[in-house]
TrEMBL record:
InterPro entries: Cellulose_synthase_operon_BcsQ, DNA_Partitioning_ATPase, P-loop_NTPase. CDD domains: ParAB_family (cd02042). Gene3D superfamilies: P-loop containing nucleotide triphosphate hydrolases. Pfam families: CBP_BcsQ. The gene is yhjQ. This is Cellulose synthase operon protein YhjQ. PANTHER family: P-LOOP CONTAINING NUCLEOSIDE TRIPHOSPHATE HYDROLASE (PTHR13696), PARA FAMILY PROTEIN CT_582 (PTHR13696:SF52). NCBIfam families: cellulose_yhjQ. Coiled coil: none annotated.
Amino acid sequence: MPLICIASPKGGVGKTSIAANLAHALARTGRQVLAMDLDPQNALRLHFGIPLEDGAGFLAALPQRPDWREAARHVAPGLRLLPHGMVDLHQALALDAALERDPELLATPLASMLAEPGLLVIADLPPGPSRALAALVPQAALVLVALLADGGSVAQLPALRSGRFLGNGTLGSLLAARLRVVVNEVEAASHLACEVARAMADTLGQRLIGAIARDPAMAEALACQTLLAEYAPGCRAAEDIATIARILDRALPAPVATAPAPPTLAALWGANWSAAP
């Protein structure tokens, strides 16, 4: 089933907050969602109330080939989470080297996830170029890039428009059609932010699928280790995320209906007993 990668050319743009809240919003549409953290910062878990001292995770244990189904945590109705896991610098470098030696460490469980009927996988990638980006993008239905309405993000537009952010040469060109952009933390009162957002819209066209208002409720929700739709459902940023989720939901294949569970022997016996003369 579909894979959506949440990426960014640089850190500090709110990529992980977008990934967490979009996963939650899409689960609320009735989809079965798996949110997977591939960023060694291990921050995605914080949006779902995982305690700070809980350092267990799927990606950090990848060399031991864990079962992703057993590692997944149910964090909301229709939503499971695969935290990255706590790693220090040495462990992060060793994990990167292991993936370089054996790409199947990640490719095999990813194929299993995508083969599960009705499951939508949302992957929070590390900022900038990474081994995870190179591995997942060819499998992705969409690559959602988070930017800010600032000069630094404007400088990234040529690489996004050409597809170079996703790969060099022909590969980048082929994958560019899957790329979509969200502008985060747009301050309506800022003349500069509005001008930058308009410039992005002119440059990216239909690839720009939404903007999220700068809203203190976003940081407050993270501080409370909860999701924005639960902390401040009526705030502007929550409305913006819900709008983007609806756009993504329409762009993806319809969710597969879950087959009803077969009746238990006790249920059948009860029905037969009541029907007996």
